[in-house]
């Protein structure tokens, strides 16, 4: 990529506050005017009871599945806080979804044994190692409390594995929008809004509805001329359900892939504008 690929487009990033900075800086580094609206907060689970029960028998598991950096973070933090160490999962194979999750895991001192070719849970199930020899395999899956991946659990169970899906973290919808971001929405200067999870889509809609009086318009009116960008298929489903459209989705379901798709969208948008200008009559 060249140093600047955007032409000053204003892009709204809806990732949680502690995860937004990297993406915002990445977009700004490519020439975008990226602003943040934290439409999701990540918190510990309502109860650690289920995870703690499984931590006490780590040596019995064949696989550990981690589908996000949040899963890695909360699992390892709880592991250590309960007096265990990374050595206690030395014999357990680890499967992760996504390059970012793999990198974050390595930063914590562990190396994944399997990363699916596509960065979604469906691909993990489809390409899971030794699919024909999973009968009786014990799989620990620390997951998001309020959004467990039913397909992952169902399909691995169908192959004979015993999947222990236990809450390791939960997500919640914030109640406030930063004044500057609120003003940007109200003034209609945002060109595209980005989503990296289905829950973020739903929380963003709730935020717009809750601040409707301040914004002076219905959510659908505010987004009428705003492109909607989704990181992948599950998030796109939520966008279609709530906003009835998705304008941008990358081929690679990652933040890098989303950045590339946004650049492609911006280039096409600029070309269309230039073509329109050339067709204007000369007085």
TrEMBL record:
PANTHER family: UROPORPHYRINOGEN-III SYNTHASE, CHLOROPLASTIC. Its EC number is 4.2.1.75. It catalyses: hydroxymethylbilane = uroporphyrinogen III + H2O. Pathway: Porphyrin-containing compound metabolism; protoporphyrin-IX biosynthesis; coproporphyrinogen-III from 5-aminolevulinate: step 3/4. GO terms for molecular function: uroporphyrinogen-III synthase activity. Residues 22-259 form the Tetrapyrrole biosynthesis uroporphyrinogen III synthase domain. It comes from Adonisia turfae CCMR0082. GO terms for biological process: protoporphyrinogen IX biosynthetic process; uroporphyrinogen III biosynthetic process. Belongs to the uroporphyrinogen-III synthase family. InterPro entries: 4pyrrol_syn_uPrphyn_synt_sf, 4pyrrol_synth_uPrphyn_synth, UROS/Hem4. SUPFAM superfamilies: HemD-like. This is Uroporphyrinogen-III synthase. Catalyzes cyclization of the linear tetrapyrrole, hydroxymethylbilane, to the macrocyclic uroporphyrinogen III. It comes from the Bacteria. Keywords: Lyase, Porphyrin biosynthesis.
């Amino acid at each position: 990529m060249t140093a600047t690929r955007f032409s000053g487009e204003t892009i709204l990033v809806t990732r949680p506050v502690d995860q937004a900075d990297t993406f915002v800086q990445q977009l700004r580094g490519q020439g975008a005017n990226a602003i943040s609206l934290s439409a999701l907060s990540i918190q510990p689970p309502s109860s650690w009871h289920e995870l703690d029960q499984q931590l006490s028998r780590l040596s019995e598991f064949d696989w550990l599945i981690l589908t996000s950096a949040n899963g890695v973070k909360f699992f390892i933090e709880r592991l250590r806080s309960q007096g265990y160490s990374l050595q206690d999962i030395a014999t357990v194979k680890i499967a992760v979804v996504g390059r970012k999750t793999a990198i974050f895991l390595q930063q914590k001192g562990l190396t994944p044994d399997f990363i699916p070719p596509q960065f979604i849970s469906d691909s993990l199930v489809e390409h899971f190692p030794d699919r024909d020899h999973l009968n009786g395999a014990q799989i620990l899956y620390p997951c998001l409390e309020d959004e467990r991946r039913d397909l992952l659990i169902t399909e691995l169970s169908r192959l004979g594995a015993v999947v222990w899906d236990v809450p390791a973290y939960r997500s919640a919808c914030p109640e406030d929008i930063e004044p500057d971001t609120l003003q940007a929405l109200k003034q209609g200067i945002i060109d595209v809004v980005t989503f990296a999870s289905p829950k973020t889509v739903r929380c963003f809609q709730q935020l717009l509805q809750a601040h409707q009086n301040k914004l002076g318009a219905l959510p659908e009116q505010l987004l009428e001329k705003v492109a909607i960008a989704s990181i992948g298929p599950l998030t796109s489903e939520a966008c279609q359900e709530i906003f009835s459209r998705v304008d941008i989705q990358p081929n690679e379901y990652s933040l890098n892939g989303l950045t590339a798709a946004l650049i492609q969208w911006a280039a096409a948008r600029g070309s269309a504008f230039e073509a329109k200008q050339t067709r204007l009559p000369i007085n």
